[in-house]
Write a structure and sequence with these properties.
Layout (H helix, E strand, L loop, with lengths): L4 H18 L22 H7 L12 E6 L2 E9 L21 H9 L4 E8 L7 E9 L4 E7 L6 H12 L4 E4 L2 H16 L8 E4 H9 L8 H7 L14 H11 L6 H21 L2
Parallel strand pairs: 3-6, 6-7
Antiparallel strand pairs: 1-2, 2-5, 3-4, 4-5
Length: about 280
C-alpha cells in the first residue's frame, strides 16, 4: 500500500515525538534540519489504527529511491550537503598537504572531484552484514551525500554491487580506518556473496595521517575527538557505536524504522567530518 504524503508527514511527527521521549536527536553544525520547537502533533487513535498494518519503512522518513540490478534492489537516500548545513567558503578546496604525506599530496594535486569518502555501518562481527554505506563526493559545486541501505539481510548483495559501481568513477578512496576495517570488511562480504568489490586505485586513510599529525597534541585520534578538537564541531545525543548492530537487527525483526533514522544521521555526520579532517590536514 502506498503511504500518502500527508500520512508520511504525520508519521514523521510521530517518530520525532517518540524519539524525543527517549533520547535527544544528534546535532552539530552539520546536524540535519531540526523540527520546530513546538510540541509535535500526535496521531489520533483513528489515524494510528490506519497506520497499523501498513508496510512503512525508512522510505516514509527519508527522501530517496532504489538502485536495482538483476539480483534485487537497495534503498538509496541522497541529499546535498548544502541542504544539511550552511555552505562554507572552503568547500571543494584543498590547500597543501604535509611533505610526509604522498597520498594526500597526490589528492591535493588532482582535486576533490577525484575522491569518494566512505563510511560503513555493519553488524559488528566479520560474519555480520554491511547494512548501511555512506558516501560523499564533490560534484564541482556541492558535496553529494549518498547512503545505501539494506532494508533486510537479503539486500546486502545488492548494496555491495551498488557500492562497487559507485567507486569505479573515482581515483581516490577516503576513509577513516578504512585500510584496517572498511575495505577488508567489504571484500570479505563480497566474497561471501560472490560480488566483486573493486576499490579506487589510491586510498587515503585519514586515521593514520591524523595520528602522524596530531598524536602528540590529542588524548586520542578517534573521529569524534578530531571533530571536536581539530574541526571545532560538536555533536550531542549521538547513537553509541555499540548500539548500532542492535538497532538494525531490531529493525529487520520489527520493521519499525523510527529508532533507525538517527543512525542515518550518525553515518552522515561521520562522512561530513571526514571531509573536514581532510581539509584540516591540508591547511
Amino acid at each position: 500500500m502506498t503511504v500518502s504524503a500527508t500520512l508520511k508527514a504525520r508519521l514523521g511527527e510521530l517518530a520525532r515525538a517518540r524519539h524525543s521521549d527517549s533520547a535527544p536527536a544528534a546535532s552539530s553544525e552539520a546536524a540535519l534540519a531540526r523540527p520546530s520547537e513546538a510540541a509535535p502533533a500526535r496521531l489520533s487513535q483513528a489515524e494510528f489504527a490506519n497506520v497499523i498494518g501498513l508496510d512503512v519503512g525508512v522510505e516514509a522518513f527519508l527522501p530517496g529511491g532504489e538502485w536495482r540490478d538483476e539480483q534485487g534492489a537497495v534503498f538509496v537516500h541522497e541529499r546535498l550537503r548544502s541542504d544539511v548545513e550552511k555552505r562554507k567558503p572552503h568547500w571543494g578546496r584543498l590547500g597543501k598537504a604535509p611533505e610526509n604525506e604522498p597520498d594526500l599530496a597526490a589528492l591535493c594535486a588532482v582535486g576533490l572531484e577525484s575522491a569518494l569518502f566512505l563510511d560503513l555501518e555493519t553488524g559488528g562481527l566479520s560474519s555480520s552484514p554491511v547494512f548501511l554505506a555512506g558516501t560523499m563526493h564533490w560534484n564541482g559545486s556541492d558535496f553529494v551525500l549518498r547512503q545505501y541501505f539494506a532494508r533486510h539481510y537479503g539486500e546486502e548483495p545488492t548494496l555491495l554491487a551498488a557500492l562497487a559501481e559507485a567507486t569505479r568513477a573515482f581515483e581516490f578512496l577516503v576513509t577513516f580506518n578504512g585500510k584496517s576495517y572498511d575495505v577488508p570488511f567489504l571484500r570479505d562480504r563480497g566474497h561471501v556473496h560472490r560480488v566483486r568489490i573493486g576499490m579506487p586505485p589510491r586510498h587515503v586513510d585519514l586515521l593514520h595521517a591524523s595520528r602522524r599529525r596530531w598524536k602528540a597534541e590529542l588524548p586520542d585520534c578517534r573521529l569524534q575527538t578530531l571533530e571536536y578538537r581539530i574541526c571545532r564541531r560538536r555533536r550531542v545525543g549521538d547513537v553509541p557505536g555499540d548500539e548500532v548492530p542492535g538497532l538494525y537487527h531490531d529493525y529487520v525483526r520489527s520493521g519499525d524504522p523510527y529508532r533507525l533514522v538517527p543512525l542515518f544521521h550518525h553515518n552522515m555526520l561521520d562522512v561530513i567530518t571526514m571531509g573536514e579532517v581532510l581539509n584540516a590536514l591540508c591547511r
